[in-house]
Amino acid sequence: MTPLFILTLIICYFAVLMLISYLTSTEDSNREFFTANRSSSWYLVAFGMVGASLSGVTFISVPGWIEASQFSYFQVVLGYMVGYFIVAYVLLPIYYKNQVTSIYEYLNDRLGKNSHKAGALFFFISRVLGAAFRLFLVAIVLQQFIFDAWNVPFEATVILSIVLIWVYTQRGGIKTIVWTDTLQTTLMILAVFLSIKYINQELGWSMLDFLKSSEFEKYSSVFVTDSFLVKNHFLKSFTGGIFITICMTGLDQDMMQKNLSCKNLKEAQKNMVAFSFVLVLVTGLFMLLGALLYIYAQREGITIPLVNGKAKTDLLFPEIALNGALGLGVGVTFILGLIAAAYSSADSALTSLTTSFCVDFLNIKNIEERKQKSLRKKVHVGMSVLLIVVVITFKYILDRNVIDSLLTVAGYTYGPLLGLFAFGIFTKHKIKDQYVWFVVFASVIITSLLANINPETLGGYVIGYELLPINGLLTFLGLILIRRK
């Protein structure tokens, strides 16, 4: 596939997104941008959330991670499912009862304005980093397979990607996102199905042959139960998955903004339950694809591309899809799936960051109504610029598998949110709200110190994804110390 052909595909896809944006952004009001007038159908939200949750990280990074981790990531995914039920039946009722636009408004009502600001700040940091991780991954693929051929700098690739996202989200907001996410999820799932089909055909296998092969067996280990000391032990991974979901979905304005656009609580809960089952199934397919990619690469002598002199496993799937001998069908579906994955996470992140900043930091509801829309549009531009800066920065500092980096960072940034919401929901205490900043930053610092303890000091114990609940527990305990007597 030539760079020009790939670019043409992207332009055509973007034109479809613009058409959806035009058809769904009739009002251009703040209410439509923030909540879609609470009129979204639950099944559209559920299906679209699959694409937003998977994003380019799952699309590329999970298959590339299979050689190093085998199927042990599925332990985390099983924990995700439990977490989604907790979100559906513990958190969603609270949000609907309080009729919030930003979920961090709950912290203001329950604990105070400083807790509100602290929660919103940690979401803001979390979502900027999370969206930047996802966009970075897609940008390096576009750079490697399109723009390097034309000597276009990486910075220009990033700017172009985010400008395109800004264009089709700047009017309709979350109402547009619900519909574009549905298209994007469809393309992602189609891409993984067709990739598995075509690679099996190239290897002369049926799906059953693949699953029975000795080569697949090398990658198919799921449960790690031998030693509790290792990072990916089942109990640590499963528990970490539960808390990752609670935080990265239930305490995240990005994901909850879609749920809050549903007509009522019952429909939002149906959305969350249906979404959880589909997400687990689709993630499993991506892991199967990863094993198949490594088997195919070994048979064909395909090497993993280098970035800054280091093998970048995240680029294995695009290398095979675009430069392999699998035919035009795999290449086209890969590009469409990749761009869908990129846009499905980044567009909703841009919308949720704009919403949170307007509601939580600028108190837009208290500003004169005629000025509100203008302010929201300026913030939307500002969030786009911020994402550009962070993604470009990642090029020079990031040297790990992206999904591992993403889940590790979540342990630091979502922990305070977990502690704040848990304290608000499960206790009746009031706190000395002015001291909450000391608590949340102390929690992050202590968590960071714990994460960097040499495993030998802990008898060989390696801290993994349980870092997030540890961080949340530290915040919870800190809040107890500043409670009002």
- Average pLDDT, all residues: 84
Query: Number of helical runs?
Result: 20
Radius of gyration: 22 Å
Total E-strand runs: 2
What can you tell me about this protein's structure?
- The mean pLDDT is 84.
- A two-stranded antiparallel ribbon has the order 1-2.
- It contains 20 helices and 2 strands.
- α1 packs across α15, α3 runs parallel beside α13 and α17 packs parallel to α20.
- By secondary structure, the chain is mostly helical.
SSE layout and pairing:
Blueprint: H1 3-24, H2 30-35, H3 42-69, H4 73-98, H5 105-110, H6 113-145, H7 154-169, H8 174-203, H9 207-212, H10 214-217, H11 234-250, H12 253-259, H13 265-300, E1 306-307, E2 310-311, H14 316-323, H15 328-361, H16 369-397, H17 402-413, H18 415-426, H19 436-451, H20 467-481
Antiparallel strand pairs: 1-2
Q: Could you give a short description of this structure?
A:
Helices cover 75% and strands 1% of the residues. The chain is built from 20 helices and two strands. α1 packs antiparallel against α8.
Features:
485 residues; mainly alpha; two-stranded antiparallel ribbon; 20 helices; 75% helix
